[in-house]
Write a structure and sequence with these properties.
By secondary structure, this protein is of the alpha/beta class. It is 15% helix and 36% strand.
Length: 138
Amino acid sequence: MAENPIPIKGLDHIVLRVRDIDTMLRYYGEVLGCTLEKVQEDIGLWQMRAGDALIDFAPVDGPIGTQKGPAPGREGHNQDHFCLLVDPWDEQAIRGALEARGCDVEDSAIRYGATGYGPSIYLTDPEGNTVELKGPST
């Protein structure tokens, strides 16, 4: 088999179209610990650091956000979910921190991802996006 000429190393960034940029920046900053890295208001893009990757937010009424149709909502989403690798994994501390901030956190399960099987939990951000937090392979 020939070597793949596209040597993918991992997730670089995702882009979420959002209705309320301030609420989303607070949630991802205060609840998940992401940090604001770059703001490009002229094109309608806010970028937050999430480990080795970025989570980009494009307000639906901004230059980038208007290019993809109606805003995401209960009946239509931009994606199913995205997963953030959490290492080290301390479920009790993670769950406690999330619940202290008013997050509903689903029961954990062992799920498969880029690092193999490991513990994970799902939660929902303020605009209905499902976020999976996953520990390293067990």
